[in-house]
Each structure stands twice: as structure tokens, then as C-alpha cells.
Amino acid sequence: MATRIVDSADVAESAQIGDGSSVWHLAQVREDAVLGENCIVGRGAYVGTGVRMGDNCKLQNYALVYEPAVLEDGVFVGPAVVFTNDHYPRAVAPDGTIKRGDDWEAVGVTCRTGASIGARAVCVAPVTIGRWALVAAGSVVIADVPDFALVAGVPARRIRWVGRAGVPLERDRDADGAWVCPATGEKYIENDDRLTEAAHS
Q1: Residue-number span of the structural domain to which 32 is assigned
Q2: 41-66 per-position pLDDT tens digit
């Protein structure tokens, strides 16, 4: 399947855009960024220099993904989400001179497979969003998010567990420490504030 890059998008020549991916109006994809297959970069979204995205990722309109972010396969980034990349942002040095690109060390946000970040959430680097985790809209993430966690608030805290379908899990009445997805029936095991998928028999 062919890639689609609309005329108003700004895609660097050194960026790699995978088969079947689309880059929409006014989006910018910077130098050496790598997008996998079947990705969508929405209107006005920004993909920083050297950012790496796996297959089947979606960046919604006006999402800002600053380098050196890494998105694994199947990551959803909602409208107007921001991934930061500076511990201590300043426009100028202590002596008042303008800071340059090599005056600071970039830190990134990592999103593991299947993670979803809700609209207008801010992820303050360096943080890792775990596999199939869900960050609620408007949250501010300042700490790592475990796999399958639903986090919300400022700062974001875990409020539920979710499964691969994104639906909040329900306790399994037949097994202590077990959870079940009401949408798919898949089972999960909680241990030491971590959730893992139950082994299939």
C-alpha cells in the first residue's frame, strides 16, 4: 500500500515513512524520524528529529511528539497531546545568552505496544508508558505508567486496570488477584501492583 503525504505537510527528506502511512495537512515530520507501516500523522501534528514510531500508530491532530520519543507498535496519541523532552527548560543560559541545541540533554517519552494517551495529556520526560496502558485525557504524567494501568489526574495516578480492549477490568470472583475483561473475556493476574496476562491453557 502506498504512503500518502498531502501537499501542505512538511516531511524531511531523511525521514522514513512506512508503507500505507498517511501524513496529513500542516503536519511536520523532522529529519531522521522513522514511521512504521500504516501510521497516521494527523493535521498539525509534529514528529521530532529522530523520533521512532512502530507500525499502526496514530497521532491525532496537533499532537506534539518531541525527540527522542519512541513509540512501539499500535500506540495511540490523542489530539493536542504533548511529549516533552527537557528536564529543566530555559530559553537562555544563566548569563543571559541564548541556549543552543547542544546546550542541553534531550530526554524522551517511551510508549510501549498498544499504549493510548488521551487528548491534551502531557507526558513529562523521561517517562515510560507501559504496554496497553491508558492515560486519561488531560492528565499530566510525571512517573512511569505500569502495563495495563489506567491513570488519570494531575499528577496522573492509577485508578483502574484495563485490558487490551481498553475497557476497565472487573474482578474475577472465582480467583483471588485475578481480573477479567468484560469485552473480551481475557483474564489478567495482579501481583505486587503489576498486572500480567493470564497464561492460556
Answers
A1: 1-162
A2: 999 999 999 999 999 999 999 999 99
On whether both 131 and 186 belong to a single domain, the answer is: no
Give me the number of domains the chain comprises: 2
Identify which of 193, 195, 192 has the alpha carbon closest to the alpha carbon of residue 180. Answer: 195
3-state class of 128 per DSSP? strand
For the record, the C-alpha cell of 24 comes out as 496529513
The pTM is what?
0.94
pLDDT value, residue 201: 45
Res. 132: pLDDT tops 80: yes
Whether residues 153 and 170 share a domain: the answer is: no
Write b or e for each residue in 77-106: b if 16 or more Cβ atoms lie within 10 A of its Cβ, otherwise e. bbbbbbbbbeeeeeeeeeeeeeeeeeeeeb
